[in-house]
């Protein structure tokens, strides 16, 4: 099984590119906090993960996030090799994003959100994007139109 789930913050703005075949790809680094114990205290450090998202997921990241945005991702690890400028073979391990959750507050998300149809579903923790759902199957509907009160949610 090759599966990874991370929650962290973007270390810089999304780097959005198009391949020669016209596909959209976003490269970014996600900083994930990791607590560790040192003698009588608990401290934190951060791990940094190279990530890559494709097509609509890449566009969503570029449109709705910025440096410091908190996101949750799930996907798979992928390694690739290349020859660097010194002629040495280098291996990179990246997270290929298959699912994205925007975890910033709803107020922050609303400030950068564009009206219209999307693959987003609103949740109490933020907005969720699933690249496997077509916009026509899942139009954006604000939570209050579902008739669910926030007090009814178990979390």
**Contiguous helical run count:** 2
The overall strand count is 8
Q: What structural category do the secondary elements indicate?
A: mainly beta
The span between the termini is 29 Å
Rg (C-alpha, Å): 18 Å
Strand content: over 45%
Q: Tell me, what's the shape?
A: globular
- Taken in chain order, the helices and strands follow as EEEEHEEHEE
- Overall pLDDT confidence: 78
User: What is the makeup of the main sheet?
Assistant: 5 strands, mixed, barrel
Major β-sheet strand ordering = 1-3-4-6-5
Q: Percentage of helical residues?
A: 10-25%
Q: Which consecutive residue ranges, at least 5 long each, have pLDDT under 50?
A: 112-127, 133-146
Features:
155 residues, five-stranded mixed β-barrel, 8 strands, 50% strand, globular, single chain, mainly beta
Question: Could you explain the architecture of this structure?
Answer:
- It is a single chain.
- The chain is mostly beta strands and 155 residues long.
- The chain contains two helices and eight strands; from the N terminus they run E-E-E-E-H-E-E-H-E-E.
- It has a five-stranded mixed β-barrel with strand order 1-3-4-6-5.
- Strand 3 (24-38) and strand 4 form a beta hairpin.
- The longest helix is centred in the middle third of the chain and has 10 residues, at 55-64.
- It is globular and about 55 Å long.
- Residues 112-127 and 133-146 have low confidence and may be disordered.
Summarize this, please?
With 155 residues, the protein is mainly beta.
């Amino acid at each position: 099984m090759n599966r990874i789930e991370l929650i962290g913050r973007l270390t810089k703005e999304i780097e959005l590119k198009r391949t020669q075949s016209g596909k959209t790809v976003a490269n970014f680094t996600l900083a994930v906090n990791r607590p560790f114990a040192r003698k009588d205290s608990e401290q934190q450090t951060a791990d940094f993960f190279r990530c890559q998202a494709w097509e609509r997921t890449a566009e969503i990241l570029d449109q709705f996030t910025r440096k410091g945005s908190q996101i949750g991702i799930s996907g798979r690890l992928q390694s690739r090799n290349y020859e660097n400028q010194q002629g040495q073979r280098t291996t990179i391990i990246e997270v290929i994003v298959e699912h994205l959750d925007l975890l910033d507050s709803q107020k922050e998300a609303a400030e950068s959100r564009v009206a219209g149809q999307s693959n987003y579903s609103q949740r109490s923790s933020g907005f969720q994007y699933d690249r496997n759902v077509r916009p026509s199957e899942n139009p954006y509907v604000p939570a209050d139109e579902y008739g669910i009160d926030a007090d009814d949610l178990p979390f």
